[in-house]
Amino acid sequence: MKELYPAYGHPKGRDGRPWFITDGRQVCPSYGHPQGSSSSPWFNIHNGYLYPDYGHPQGVSSRPWFRIHRNEIYPDYGNPKGAGGGAWYTIV
Description:
By secondary structure, this protein is mostly beta strands. The chain has one domain. Helices cover 0% and strands 34% of the residues. Strands 1-2-3-4-5-6-7-8 form an eight-stranded antiparallel β-barrel. Strand 2 (20-22) and strand 3 (26-29) form a beta hairpin. The N and C termini lie close together (9 Å).
């Protein structure tokens, strides 16, 4: 499992606690997430993009909310806050 930490571009700023964990296929909230941890995946990873899954509070989406570039995750066009800007998460 890898951990996702809020990065410099995240709207709430950096955090030293992992907000999510991933097995490379699914992303679940971790103990550092403000809403707590869950074993229900919030995102599915497909071809380097993260799509909201059934466990996500806003439900499933066919539009990717994030894209993975190297070991960072950036908001994509499906994200309610829009695409671009700095990385929201760092994968460790």
